[in-house]
Protein backbone atom coordinates (compact mmCIF):
# COMPACT_ATOMS: atom_id res chain seq x y z
CA UNK A 1 0.00 0.00 0.00
CA UNK A 2 1.30 3.42 -0.93
CA UNK A 3 0.83 6.23 1.52
CA UNK A 4 0.92 10.00 1.51
CA UNK A 5 1.19 12.18 4.59
CA UNK A 6 1.04 15.91 5.01
CA UNK A 7 0.89 17.30 8.54
CA UNK A 8 0.99 20.85 9.82
CA UNK A 9 4.09 20.74 12.11
CA UNK A 10 2.21 22.67 14.80
CA UNK A 11 -0.17 19.73 15.21
CA UNK A 12 2.06 16.81 14.33
CA UNK A 13 2.25 15.36 17.83
CA UNK A 14 -1.41 15.86 18.61
CA UNK A 15 -2.60 14.49 15.28
CA UNK A 16 -0.43 11.35 15.44
CA UNK A 17 -1.51 10.70 19.02
CA UNK A 18 -5.11 11.13 17.96
CA UNK A 19 -4.82 8.60 15.14
CA UNK A 20 -3.37 6.04 17.55
CA UNK A 21 -5.98 6.51 20.23
CA UNK A 22 -9.07 7.50 18.23
CA UNK A 23 -11.03 8.55 21.32
CA UNK A 24 -14.82 8.55 21.26
CA UNK A 25 -16.26 11.56 19.43
CA UNK A 26 -18.89 14.02 20.66
CA UNK A 27 -20.78 13.70 17.39
CA UNK A 28 -20.40 11.15 14.60
CA UNK A 29 -21.92 11.37 11.15
CA UNK A 30 -22.02 8.81 8.37
CA UNK A 31 -22.76 9.40 4.73
CA UNK A 32 -22.82 7.11 1.69
CA UNK A 33 -21.37 8.50 -1.52
CA UNK A 34 -22.68 6.96 -4.74
CA UNK A 35 -20.82 6.70 -8.04
CA UNK A 36 -21.16 9.87 -10.17
CA UNK A 37 -23.96 11.17 -7.98
CA UNK A 38 -23.26 14.86 -8.30
CA UNK A 39 -26.64 15.84 -6.92
CA UNK A 40 -26.09 14.29 -3.50
CA UNK A 41 -22.31 14.43 -3.28
CA UNK A 42 -21.57 17.40 -1.08
CA UNK A 43 -24.44 16.80 1.32
CA UNK A 44 -22.21 14.99 3.79
CA UNK A 45 -19.86 17.95 3.93
CA UNK A 46 -22.76 20.37 4.23
CA UNK A 47 -24.00 18.40 7.23
CA UNK A 48 -20.60 18.51 8.92
CA UNK A 49 -20.39 22.21 8.22
CA UNK A 50 -23.79 22.80 9.83
CA UNK A 51 -22.90 20.85 12.96
CA UNK A 52 -19.64 22.77 13.37
CA UNK A 53 -21.32 26.08 12.68
CA UNK A 54 -23.73 25.40 15.53
CA UNK A 55 -20.75 24.64 17.76
CA UNK A 56 -19.47 28.12 16.99
CA UNK A 57 -16.38 27.17 14.99
CA UNK A 58 -14.61 30.23 13.59
CA UNK A 59 -15.85 31.02 10.04
CA UNK A 60 -12.37 30.86 8.54
CA UNK A 61 -11.68 27.43 9.99
CA UNK A 62 -15.17 26.35 9.02
CA UNK A 63 -14.42 27.33 5.47
CA UNK A 64 -11.21 25.29 5.45
CA UNK A 65 -13.08 22.25 6.78
CA UNK A 66 -15.87 22.68 4.23
CA UNK A 67 -13.47 22.99 1.30
CA UNK A 68 -11.31 20.01 2.29
CA UNK A 69 -14.28 17.81 3.05
CA UNK A 70 -16.20 18.74 -0.08
CA UNK A 71 -13.22 18.09 -2.37
CA UNK A 72 -12.71 14.66 -0.83
CA UNK A 73 -16.41 13.83 -1.06
CA UNK A 74 -16.57 14.88 -4.71
CA UNK A 75 -13.47 12.81 -5.48
CA UNK A 76 -15.16 9.68 -4.19
CA UNK A 77 -18.20 10.39 -6.38
CA UNK A 78 -16.13 11.40 -9.40
CA UNK A 79 -13.27 8.90 -9.40
CA UNK A 80 -14.27 5.84 -7.37
CA UNK A 81 -16.86 3.10 -7.40
CA UNK A 82 -18.60 4.74 -4.49
CA UNK A 83 -17.77 4.87 -0.84
CA UNK A 84 -18.51 6.26 2.56
CA UNK A 85 -17.68 9.31 4.59
CA UNK A 86 -17.40 9.12 8.39
CA UNK A 87 -17.04 12.30 10.40
CA UNK A 88 -16.01 12.57 14.03
CA UNK A 89 -16.50 15.86 15.81
CA UNK A 90 -14.53 16.69 18.98
CA UNK A 91 -14.21 19.75 21.23
CA UNK A 92 -11.10 20.95 19.49
CA UNK A 93 -10.97 19.19 16.11
CA UNK A 94 -12.77 17.28 13.43
CA UNK A 95 -11.59 14.01 11.90
CA UNK A 96 -13.12 12.93 8.59
CA UNK A 97 -12.43 9.61 6.92
CA UNK A 98 -13.36 8.70 3.35
CA UNK A 99 -13.16 5.10 2.24
CA UNK A 100 -14.17 3.98 -1.24
CA UNK A 101 -14.49 0.73 -3.15
CA UNK A 102 -11.62 1.36 -5.56
CA UNK A 103 -10.21 1.46 -8.21
CA UNK A 104 -7.49 3.15 -6.15
CA UNK A 105 -4.78 5.62 -7.07
CA UNK A 106 -1.73 4.15 -8.80
CA UNK A 107 0.58 7.09 -8.06
CA UNK A 108 -0.51 9.28 -5.16
CA UNK A 109 2.37 11.76 -5.57
CA UNK A 110 1.35 12.31 -9.18
CA UNK A 111 -2.29 12.75 -8.11
CA UNK A 112 -1.21 15.48 -5.68
CA UNK A 113 0.34 17.59 -8.46
CA UNK A 114 -1.84 20.65 -9.18
CA UNK A 115 -3.41 20.32 -12.63
CA UNK A 116 -3.09 16.55 -12.85
CA UNK A 117 -6.43 14.86 -13.46
CA UNK A 118 -7.94 11.72 -14.95
CA UNK A 119 -11.49 13.10 -14.80
CA UNK A 120 -13.76 11.76 -17.55
CA UNK A 121 -16.08 13.84 -19.75
CA UNK A 122 -19.05 13.62 -17.39
CA UNK A 123 -16.96 14.78 -14.44
CA UNK A 124 -15.59 17.69 -16.50
CA UNK A 125 -19.06 18.62 -17.65
CA UNK A 126 -20.02 18.95 -13.99
CA UNK A 127 -17.27 21.53 -13.55
CA UNK A 128 -14.65 19.26 -12.00
CA UNK A 129 -11.35 17.97 -13.33
CA UNK A 130 -9.03 20.93 -12.85
CA UNK A 131 -6.72 18.68 -10.84
CA UNK A 132 -6.91 21.03 -7.88
CA UNK A 133 -9.00 19.08 -5.39
CA UNK A 134 -6.24 17.17 -3.62
CA UNK A 135 -3.97 20.26 -3.49
CA UNK A 136 -6.91 22.17 -1.99
CA UNK A 137 -7.30 19.50 0.68
CA UNK A 138 -3.58 19.62 1.47
CA UNK A 139 -3.70 23.40 1.75
CA UNK A 140 -6.68 23.46 4.09
CA UNK A 141 -6.22 20.43 6.35
CA UNK A 142 -3.88 20.21 9.33
CA UNK A 143 -3.44 16.53 8.54
CA UNK A 144 -3.97 14.72 5.25
CA UNK A 145 -3.31 11.01 5.00
CA UNK A 146 -4.00 9.00 1.85
CA UNK A 147 -3.58 5.24 1.60
CA UNK A 148 -4.13 3.64 -1.77
CA UNK A 149 -2.85 1.42 -4.53
CA UNK A 150 -4.21 0.63 -7.95
CA UNK A 151 -6.83 -2.10 -7.70
CA UNK A 152 -7.47 -1.38 -4.03
CA UNK A 153 -9.69 1.04 -2.16
CA UNK A 154 -8.59 4.55 -1.34
CA UNK A 155 -8.69 5.81 2.23
CA UNK A 156 -8.34 9.54 2.73
CA UNK A 157 -8.26 11.02 6.23
CA UNK A 158 -8.24 14.64 7.26
CA UNK A 159 -7.95 16.40 10.61
CA UNK A 160 -8.57 20.08 11.21
CA UNK A 161 -8.18 21.79 14.58
CA UNK A 162 -10.29 24.71 15.76
CA UNK A 163 -9.17 25.19 19.32
CA UNK B 1 -13.82 49.59 -1.52
CA UNK B 2 -17.19 47.87 -1.17
CA UNK B 3 -20.39 48.23 -3.13
CA UNK B 4 -23.93 47.11 -2.51
CA UNK B 5 -24.69 43.82 -4.19
CA UNK B 6 -28.08 45.21 -5.16
CA UNK B 7 -26.51 48.13 -7.01
CA UNK B 8 -24.22 45.86 -8.99
CA UNK B 9 -27.05 43.52 -9.97
CA UNK B 10 -29.04 46.52 -11.10
CA UNK B 11 -26.14 47.82 -13.15
CA UNK B 12 -25.74 44.54 -15.03
CA UNK B 13 -29.52 44.32 -15.49
CA UNK B 14 -29.60 40.92 -13.84
CA UNK B 15 -32.71 38.98 -13.05
CA UNK B 16 -32.57 37.89 -9.42
CA UNK B 17 -33.96 34.35 -9.42
CA UNK B 18 -33.83 33.90 -5.63
CA UNK B 19 -36.11 36.73 -4.47
CA UNK B 20 -36.51 34.95 -1.12
CA UNK B 21 -32.88 35.60 -0.28
CA UNK B 22 -32.49 38.95 1.45
CA UNK B 23 -29.56 40.82 -0.05
CA UNK B 24 -30.44 44.31 1.16
CA UNK B 25 -27.45 44.42 3.50
CA UNK B 26 -24.97 42.41 1.41
CA UNK B 27 -21.93 44.33 0.28
CA UNK B 28 -19.24 43.02 -2.04
CA UNK B 29 -15.58 43.80 -2.15
CA UNK B 30 -14.35 41.75 -5.09
CA UNK B 31 -15.26 39.23 -7.75
CA UNK B 32 -14.09 35.88 -9.02
CA UNK B 33 -14.46 34.42 -12.49
CA UNK B 34 -14.06 30.70 -13.15
CA UNK B 35 -15.95 27.66 -14.37
CA UNK B 36 -13.72 25.09 -12.71
CA UNK B 37 -15.25 24.35 -9.34
CA UNK B 38 -12.08 23.25 -7.57
CA UNK B 39 -10.38 26.41 -8.75
CA UNK B 40 -13.17 28.42 -7.13
CA UNK B 41 -12.91 26.27 -4.00
CA UNK B 42 -9.23 27.02 -3.70
CA UNK B 43 -9.26 30.70 -4.50
CA UNK B 44 -12.62 32.42 -4.09
CA UNK B 45 -13.27 34.30 -0.88
CA UNK B 46 -16.07 35.65 1.21
CA UNK B 47 -17.53 38.88 -0.10
CA UNK B 48 -16.85 38.05 -3.73
CA UNK B 49 -19.40 37.78 -6.49
CA UNK B 50 -18.78 34.67 -8.56
CA UNK B 51 -19.39 35.06 -12.28
CA UNK B 52 -19.73 31.80 -14.20
CA UNK B 53 -21.52 29.83 -16.89
CA UNK B 54 -21.54 26.65 -14.74
CA UNK B 55 -25.10 26.25 -13.54
CA UNK B 56 -25.19 22.80 -11.92
CA UNK B 57 -26.17 21.96 -8.37
CA UNK B 58 -22.47 21.83 -7.53
CA UNK B 59 -22.19 25.53 -8.18
CA UNK B 60 -24.44 26.24 -5.22
CA UNK B 61 -22.55 23.76 -3.05
CA UNK B 62 -19.25 25.43 -3.89
CA UNK B 63 -20.66 28.91 -3.22
CA UNK B 64 -21.92 27.66 0.12
CA UNK B 65 -18.62 26.01 1.09
CA UNK B 66 -16.65 29.14 0.23
CA UNK B 67 -19.20 31.60 1.71
CA UNK B 68 -19.81 33.37 -1.58
CA UNK B 69 -22.97 35.48 -1.22
CA UNK B 70 -23.96 35.68 -4.88
CA UNK B 71 -23.47 33.78 -8.14
CA UNK B 72 -24.07 35.60 -11.42
CA UNK B 73 -24.77 33.41 -14.44
CA UNK B 74 -23.63 35.01 -17.68
CA UNK B 75 -25.12 34.78 -21.17
CA UNK B 76 -28.66 34.37 -19.85
CA UNK B 77 -27.91 30.86 -18.58
CA UNK B 78 -30.53 30.01 -16.01
CA UNK B 79 -30.14 27.05 -13.64
CA UNK B 80 -33.08 24.72 -13.13
CA UNK B 81 -35.62 24.87 -10.31
CA UNK B 82 -33.88 22.36 -8.04
CA UNK B 83 -30.69 24.42 -8.12
CA UNK B 84 -32.59 27.60 -7.32
CA UNK B 85 -34.37 25.89 -4.45
CA UNK B 86 -31.08 24.70 -2.97
CA UNK B 87 -29.63 28.21 -3.26
CA UNK B 88 -32.59 29.62 -1.33
CA UNK B 89 -32.04 27.02 1.40
CA UNK B 90 -28.38 27.97 1.57
CA UNK B 91 -29.24 31.69 1.45
CA UNK B 92 -27.17 32.30 -1.64
CA UNK B 93 -28.35 34.86 -4.16
CA UNK B 94 -28.52 33.69 -7.77
CA UNK B 95 -28.78 36.20 -10.61
CA UNK B 96 -28.88 35.82 -14.38
CA UNK B 97 -27.60 38.41 -16.82
CA UNK B 98 -27.64 38.36 -20.61
CA UNK B 99 -24.19 39.91 -20.66
CA UNK B 100 -20.95 38.01 -21.24
CA UNK B 101 -18.53 37.08 -18.48
CA UNK B 102 -15.96 39.65 -19.63
CA UNK B 103 -18.46 42.49 -19.46
CA UNK B 104 -19.90 41.37 -16.13
CA UNK B 105 -16.43 41.26 -14.57
CA UNK B 106 -15.44 44.56 -16.17
CA UNK B 107 -18.50 46.34 -14.87
CA UNK B 108 -17.81 45.14 -11.33
CA UNK B 109 -14.14 46.07 -11.61
CA UNK B 110 -15.08 49.58 -12.62
CA UNK B 111 -17.74 49.89 -9.94
CA UNK B 112 -15.22 48.84 -7.27
CA UNK B 113 -12.81 51.48 -8.54
CA UNK B 114 -10.03 48.93 -8.97
N1 LIG C 1 -11.02 8.53 -4.41
C1 LIG C 1 -10.27 8.43 -5.52
N2 LIG C 1 -10.22 7.24 -6.19
C2 LIG C 1 -9.45 7.12 -7.31
N3 LIG C 1 -8.75 8.13 -7.84
C3 LIG C 1 -8.77 9.32 -7.23
C4 LIG C 1 -9.52 9.53 -6.03
N4 LIG C 1 -9.34 10.82 -5.65
C5 LIG C 1 -8.51 11.37 -6.55
N5 LIG C 1 -8.16 10.48 -7.49
C6 LIG C 1 -7.22 10.70 -8.62
O1 LIG C 1 -6.42 11.84 -8.36
C7 LIG C 1 -6.58 12.79 -9.41
C8 LIG C 1 -6.42 14.19 -8.86
O2 LIG C 1 -7.48 14.50 -7.93
P1 LIG C 1 -7.88 16.02 -7.69
O3 LIG C 1 -9.01 16.05 -6.75
O4 LIG C 1 -6.66 16.78 -7.31
O5 LIG C 1 -8.31 16.53 -9.13
P2 LIG C 1 -9.64 16.17 -9.94
O6 LIG C 1 -10.64 15.55 -9.04
O7 LIG C 1 -9.26 15.38 -11.13
O8 LIG C 1 -10.12 17.60 -10.40
P3 LIG C 1 -10.75 18.74 -9.42
O9 LIG C 1 -10.63 18.23 -8.02
O10 LIG C 1 -9.92 19.94 -9.66
O11 LIG C 1 -12.16 18.90 -9.83
C9 LIG C 1 -7.93 12.49 -10.01
O12 LIG C 1 -8.08 12.96 -11.33
C10 LIG C 1 -7.95 10.97 -9.93
O13 LIG C 1 -7.17 10.40 -10.96
MG1 LIG D 1 -11.12 16.42 -7.20
Give a description of the structure.
The complex is a heterodimer of chains A (163) and B (114). Chain A has 163 residues and is an alpha+beta fold. Chain A has a single domain, classed as Heat Shock Protein 90 (2-Layer Sandwich). Chain A has a six-stranded antiparallel sheet with strand order 1-5-6-4-3-2, covered by helices on one side. In chain A, strand 3 and strand 4 form a beta hairpin. Chain A starts with a strand and ends with a strand. The mean pLDDT of chain A is 97. The model of chain B has no long low-confidence stretch (mean pLDDT 96). The radius of gyration of chain B is 12 Å and the shape is globular. Chain B contains five helices and seven strands. With 114 residues, chain B is of the alpha/beta class. Chain B has a five-stranded mixed sheet with strand order 2-7-6-5-4, with helices on both faces. In chain B, helix 4 links the parallel strand 6 and strand 7. Chain B starts with a strand and ends with a helix. Chain B has a single domain, classed as Udp-n-acetylmuramoylalanyl-d-glutamate--2,6- Diaminopimelate Ligase, Chain: A, domain 1. At the A-B interface, helix 2, helix 3 and helix 6 of A face helix 2 and helix 3 of B. Bound molecules: adenosine-5'-triphosphate and magnesium ion. The site of adenosine-5'-triphosphate has 22 residues of chain A, from helix 3 and helix 6.
Order of helices and strands of chain A: EHEHHEEHHHEE
Radius of gyration of chain A: 15 Å
Low-confidence stretches of chain B: none
Q: List low-confidence stretches of chain A.
A: none
CATH architecture identity of chain B: 3-Layer(aba) Sandwich
Helix content of chain A: 25-40%
Q: Specify the structural class of chain B.
A: alpha/beta
Q: What's the count of strands of chain B?
A: 7
Look at the structure and name the CATH superfamily of chain B: HprK N-terminal domain-like
